[in-house]
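Ticket reopened. Same input as before:
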Amino acid sequence: MSAGTARAGLPVTVEDQGEDRGRYLLDREGLLGPLLLLPAIAYIAALVGFPLVLAIAYSFSDVIVADQSIDWVGLDNFRAVVKTPNFQNALRNTFLFTIVSQVIVLVMANALAMVLAADFRGKRLVRFLTLLPWTTPIALAVLGWLWLLDNVYSPVDWLLREAGLLGPGTWLGPMGNVYWLSEPSKAQLVVLFVHIWRTLPLATVILLAGLTAIPQDVRDAANVDGAGFWRQLVYIRIPLLLPIMAVAVLFGMVFTFTDMTVVYVLTRGNSDTHVLASLAYFTGVESGSLAQGAAIALFLFPALVGIAVLMLRLARRTETN
Amino acid sequence: MGEVRRWARRPVTRRDLLRGTGAVALGATLSPLAMERIRAAAAQATPTRNIAGTELKLLQWSHFVPRYDAWFDAFAKAWGDANGVAVTVDHINTADVPAAIAAEISAGEGHDLIEHIVPAAQYGPSMLDLRDVVDEATKRHGPQADVARLNSYNPTTDTFFAFCHGYAPDPANYRKDLWTEAGLPDGPKTYDELRTGGKQIRDATGIQLGIGMSNEVDSNMAAQAMMWAFGGSVQDENENVVINSPENIAAVEYMAGLFTDAMTPEVFGWNAASNNQLMIAGRASYILNSISAYRTAQKDQPETAAGIYFGSPLVGPGGPERALAHGHAVFNYMVPNHSQYQDTAKEFLLYLTSAYDQATSESELYNFPAFPSTVPNLVEEGGPLDVDPFGSDPVDKLAVLKTAESWTRNLGWPGPANAAIGEVFGTFVLPTMMARVARGEQTAQESIAQAESETTAIFDRWRAEGLIGGGQ
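Engineering reply: fixed in the latest deploy. New output:
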């Protein structure tokens, strides 16, 4: 029924004409599409775009917390921060924690997903426990690790002592504690471990979904052809899971790359564990040098843009397939 | 009156109920005597400005002595009730205060009074100059202690970016039983004694010294005090960086030796509570801290508390006149420019100062007054430091604090407590400098050179902002 025509048996009223015009407008894709996208665009512009533009403006200026009037200083902040050993350490740590943790997560998540895809007694409970670290608020979870690895009261150390692995004349040395968060190598390992612990569940769930989506007839055909576990893994599962693996890794990378909670709660940057996000916070907010804090944080930007481009390409390729 | 009637007609809401039960709970934690003193003081308050009908929102750190917060909330509320001011007090962890300040400045709204326990000159441009409050308090109560004045004043801008109402001394806390065994029953008096005695104790008992080299405030203060004792400092009187000096190199080398002889790697991973925990757990022979750990131990571990004694700052190669300590906490209130009730905030500060005997007593002698005349008996013979009313045995255990004003210095001494030294502390340049050498990663010279480079960059930046002097 076109606009302006009457409903069967009823005379056309002014209200009907208005209603029809409204319907007609909402039928136009050119109008409806942008209209539906508008809330999302407004949300992104306000909560992502504006802060990003502000951070870029701050990083090229001399703003401090107490005086946020912008005077442009060009690249001075970037030049100043790249020279500092603290920044160089933080940059290295950011990439190290992200790359190493995600490589390990990828391997472990594949194994875990295959275990969870199999049928066994208590599977639901195991799945629930596997997902638990992801559902716990990150600050709370890291606080738990902080207590577990406490320098004085660590229950982990107590277990090691009771097992005869820690203390005078033992494998882990003469001291009564491991001091997990006090020495750079150990503290960095702990940060890495916590990142793995918290991103593993998400990757596992994503890969589990991918595994269950592999058609049964493909697996049956492989079995009939006599393909063993490794052959199926290398020639069937991994190639078919590759796109979804990439999604899992990219999510994990974004979460790890931008995280400051783990370092902030566990070490506050002690023992050479600062990452770009935590260093930016301490410099920009704790010390009031907002411009330098913004400059440090902006070093995350190119890597995140790269990851975003990869994700978009992947999404497009999946769509095309 | 109209407001009162409207309130009476309004049905009781969940918020009212929570407020009411909160007030009852609060009253329950305070003694009748404390409540009576609060009421009496509030009745005598005589604001010089018309503040009736205004509001006062306070944001402050959660005090290390919980009793103080209970007292303060009732104290502020009683003053508000007596003067027609609606008072709200929010307490947050001291580590969260900088982020809260930054957020409120950015938003251009928030609390009318913000208390922080370290001098925060970096926020100066967004804070009201409180010179008039300092002048008025001085007129009423006599001179402000140097440590308080210098921790709240910026000589470059000639402004008081905060009003300092008190400070907590930072004495040594030592285990008398262990140090008696080491032949020093009154604890170490010099850095040499600290090292030899500390080593002897650790070798004999496995119990270490507890001086942090970590990203936390106590480590900052310990490092700075050590540099002072060895004759060095981070900046000079004119706000020029002088960290790369033979005296500071000696201090860093000493700290590395102290670590090797008498400590364990845990001091590299401490937070601000760690040395307290270590002392209360009976696993430290000596720490640098306020009396809060001792007060906690008195309640939770009385046997441990009985063995904890206090000492004044240690003498180093710089001589007795450089045996100094930071104020462990410096109680600075700031009034943001965006506050709508600045007069009310100022009146409250003057009121708090006038009733400081209560603050000192309700903090269990943690808070020392910025205006000494407000707690006249504190350092007198037979006063509370000679006869601790909070159960010390012997009763004069805290007597060493009677001289605290003479050995307590401002952040950044001999220069002012400026924004640059604040950032040096905020980014933990000094404890990291010590830790690098103690861990064997660098020599003292290399580590100090790195710290100098970092410190100079920080000073240059704040100098460019016009907030600090020097640089000639």
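The first helix of chain B runs from residue 2 to 9. Residues 147 and 336 of chain B are 23 Å apart (CA to CA). Please confirm and we'll close it.
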